[in-house]
Each structure stands twice: as structure tokens, then as C-alpha cells.
Design brief:
Elements lengths: L8 H12 L4 H7 L4 H13 L16 H13 L2 H8 L3 H9 L5 H8 L3 H13 L3 E5 L2 E4 L1 H24 L6 E5 L2 E6 L8 E2 L18 E4 L7 H10 L5 H13 L4 H4 L2 H4 L3 H12 L12 H13 L1
Antiparallel strand pairs: 1-2, 3-4, 4-6, 5-6
Helix pairs in contact: 1-3, 1-4, 1-5, 2-3, 4-9
């Protein structure tokens, strides 16, 4: 399940037109020289992501005030056609990730999964349109005058994502977002658009748990790897002594290495915790990081699992 939709140019043309003046699909089609079937396709896109509520093709289309306000402010700086091109496809998501301090192409590739060539093309376009700049070569930042607007856009689109979850009767106790990846802690056993991960899959890797009645999920279409299961669990374990203990046990019994984990610690912002756990295991507790138990206590728990 995508957090931030990659909307077509026509979808943005429709959004911008409604932001300027609430109207019907037929009228927008005529005023923007777009065939009605193209408007209909764009409207389907927007309804799918809850950006426009289903209202029927002959009724007036209206946006909520939050997204309408951001679009109207952007129209002060850009003509309609340019703004639609600026936000279409993957571009808005790249802006969101730059806003979240993912400044380099290497980090953006990790966090979005987009190719380097795609990111270079998008960033060149955003820089040409004066949305981003490079304070030094290879580092991209939002211009100050757009930060607030993009932050508002982020909040608006994230609220649409939460609304989609609620419409699917999905409930959660905790939600974490890392680029395009969403981790959920939920009292439910199965969620549409998500698969189990983290502590919910520890039993598959020799660490059966009875920690909680909650389940842990990620918005993948495939089952996560062993390394991802560990990292996803660790993302929920920051400053939690008990969770960190079982993450350490998982890493130890499955002989995980920093090389095997690859870029995952960076993506999920647990680099410090991963290094701390691996050093703790390697030095047999001589180096004890934050939220790690005494080695004697750890060995006692480890022996119980080793016997199983």
C-alpha cells in the first residue's frame, strides 16, 4: 500500500482546477482542453486515494480546505501547467523525502527505491524550477520559501493515507514511516495491503515469543527477509529494554552481520542500535549500549532458547 500516490499530470490538472474554482468534471474538461474520459480517469485516481470523495461525475467537485490552500499558494509562484508538471508522478514523493532530510541521491535511492537516473532527472527538473537547490555538489535542499508548503502537503497526503487505513477497518497502536515503507503495530492478526514482519515472524527464526497480543506489519507485497524481520523489530525497540533483548537474541542465534544487513539500518534509522547489538554479541557483553541488558542476564535467556 502506497503512502503517497504518484498522481498523473491529468490528476494534478484536475486538482489545480478545483482548487481555483470548484466545478463539474464536464466544465473542467472543456476549460482545460482535456477529454472527458481523461478527466474521468483522473477522478478515479483521486477517489482511490481519498483525495476527492466520490460525488458522481455530474456533481460539483470540491477539495478540502487544507489541500486547496496549499495549491492556491503554489499557484502564486507557478502557472497551472508548470505546477502540474512539477508535482506529477514521483516528483512530489522526492520533495517529501528531501523535506525529511534525505539530501543525497544515494540516500534518496535507498529510501524511495527509485533508480539513480530517475532521481537525477527529477532533481534536475526541481532545481530548474527553483524548488530545490544545491548548497554543495550532490546535496539537495528545499528552498526556504517552499518548506512550509511542502510540509503542509506532506501532512495532507499522510492524513489521506490514514483515512484509507481507517476505511479498510485497519487499527493500529503505533505507526512508523521510513520513506515509502510503513511499519504498523496492530491488535489485528491480518491487514489488507500489509504482511507480517518483526516480532510476528521471530518464531520462524528460532526465537518464538510471547511478548504481546499485538502483531507487526510492513506494507510489502512479499514476505520480508530474515534481515528485514530483524530491522523492523528493532525499529520498534528503540529505548525498550525487553524488545531490544529479543532483537539481540535474534541477531545472535541467526548470526547476522553488518554486511548481510546492508543498507537496512540506514533506511530504518537504527544504525547506532545495530552496531551496539553486534558489538555486544562480539565482545560478550563487554560493550553494553543503550537498552542492553547485563551479559549474565542475556546468557540466561539465550540458554533457554538454545535448549529449545
Amino acid at each position: 500500500m502506497l503512502i503517497f500516490p504518484e498522481l498523473s499530470k491529468n490528476a494534478w490538472v484536475l486538482l489545480i482546477a478545483i482548487a481555483e474554482n470548484p466545478s463539474t468534471a464536464a466544465k473542467i474538461s472543456k476549460e482545460n482542453n482535456l477529454r472527458l474520459n481523461r478527466i474521468s480517469e483522473a477522478l478515479n485516481e483521486l477517489e482511490k486515494f481519498k483525495i476527492i470523495k466520490s460525488r458522481g461525475r455530474r456533481k460539483q467537485l470540491i477539495l478540502d480546505s487544507s489541500i486547496r490552500g496549499v495549491l492556491k499558494e503554489l499557484l502564486v509562484h507557478y502557472p497551472k501547467e508548470s505546477l502540474a508538471e512539477l508535482l506529477e508522478g514521483k516528483k512530489l514523493n522526492v520533495l517529501f523525502q528531501v523535506l525529511e532530510n534525505h539530501f543525497t541521491i544515494a540516500k534518496l535511492k535507498l529510501i524511495t527505491g527509485y533508480s539513480i537516473s530517475t532521481l537525477k532527472r527529477i532533481l534536475a527538473h526541481l532545481q530548474e524550477k527553483l524548488f530545490v537547490y544545491q548548497p554543495k555538489k550532490g546535496v539537495y535542499k528545499l528552498r526556504d520559501e517552499y518548506k512550509s508548503l511542502i510540509r503542509q502537503f506532506y501532512s495532507v497526503f499522510f492524513s489521506y493515507f490514514l483515512e484509507r487505513l481507517e476505511n479498510q477497518k485497519i487499527t493500529w497502536k503505533e505507526i512508523k514511516v521510513f520513506g515509502n515503507n510503513v511499519l504498523l503495530k496492530s491488535p489485528q492478526n491480518a491487514l489488507s495491503g500489509f504482511v507480517n514482519t518483526g516480532f510476528s515472524l521471530f518464531h520462524k527464526y528460532h526465537v518464538p515469543l510471547f511478548l504481546t497480543d499485538d502483531s507487526f506489519f510492513v506494507n510489502y507485497v512479499r514476505e520480508p527477509t530474515k534481515e528485514e524481520v530483524f530491522i523492523h523489530a528493532l525499529a520498534f525497540s528503540v529505548r525498550d529494554y525487553r524488545y531490544t533483548l529479543y532483537c539481540t537474541l535474534f541477531a545472535d542465534l541467526n548470526k547476522l552481520t553488518l554486511k548481510e544487513l546492508g543498507h537496512l539500518p540506514k533506511i530504518y534509522e537504527v544504525e547506532k542500535q545495530v552496531i551496539g547489538i553486534l558489538e555486544y554479541i562480539k565482545t560478550k557483553g563487554q560493550k553494553i549500549g543503550e537498552s542492553l541488558s547485563s551479559y549474565a542476564e542475556y546468557l540466561e535467556v539465550r540458554r533457554d532458547y538454545a535448549r529449545d
